[in-house]
Amino acid sequence: MPVRHEEKHQMHDHRRKTRHETVNVQGLDIFYRHAGDPELPAILLLHGYPNSSYAFRNIIEPLARTAHVVAPDLPAFGFSAAPPADAYDYTFENIADTIEAFLDALELDRFFLFATDFGTPVGYHLATRRPDRIRGLIVQNGNAHDDGLGPEWNGPKAFFAEPTAANRAKLPEWMNFETTRYQYIGNQPERLACLYPPEGWHLDWERLSRPGIIDIQFKIFSDYGSHIARFPTIRAYHREHQPPCLLLWGRHDPFFDLNEIMAYNRTLDSLEIHVFESGHQLLETHSGECADLISRFMLDVEADGRSVALE
Predict the structure, then answer these.
(1) Which pLDDT tens digit goes with each residue over 10-26?
(2) Looking at 34, 47, 68, 280, which residue is catalytic?
(3) In the annotation, is 280 catalytic?
């Protein structure tokens, strides 16, 4: 029997619903959220600290109208496995290895890459290894240039260069409940701070405060120096491969300086920038606006690609 129009509509609507699943990759259980038709262009969403794929909850289904959306929890975040540090190498390069194996398990070959915060070094490892896989970049408060690292990074940079007990002691205390909340609120005025639902940092801290996780997270943070060392590699990737890029930024980010956005402008020919009255966790306050921009960006890039192929 032919499928009626109403049934087809229900089938497509059902595909846009978010699914929550786990896949075993290299012996690790990786939790992920996904939605959308696998025949559509794919987008990989990589979260940062202190988040998980929960950070994308408000954009997954809107994006799934026109894309195949995949959002994993990185190892030791959210509901993915968190093996002890002596059993897993908590570097951005190795986390990228795991995500690459995750993509292989899902048979996800080419995709748009959304990266933010700690997801940025992971994403750029994927991009520089296989530039042909990247249909386009969406960067949201993700640092990849020296311009974004203000004076408050002097202490961490000293620790990255010499990870001694003395240099570690100079670092501010940043892995507790209050600083997890600060990741969202920062120093924003009350008119903006009240826009953030508290569930986000409560859930983050519930997962981060499990036994052993703080030590693992510090190991990941300690590897950020390797990301800084890769800034010239990332610039070369931008310059040589010219991926279309959509830059979404909360201007009250307490961690990454607003000068960062113009650093992208120096090397990318195809760059669209949107700056919002928000903070580091932009999707908490502007999910609708960002989902619309991402969807349109993806459709435009795909349309441009088709037109080039036809010429």
Answers:
(1) 445 677 899 999 999 99
(2) 280
(3) yes
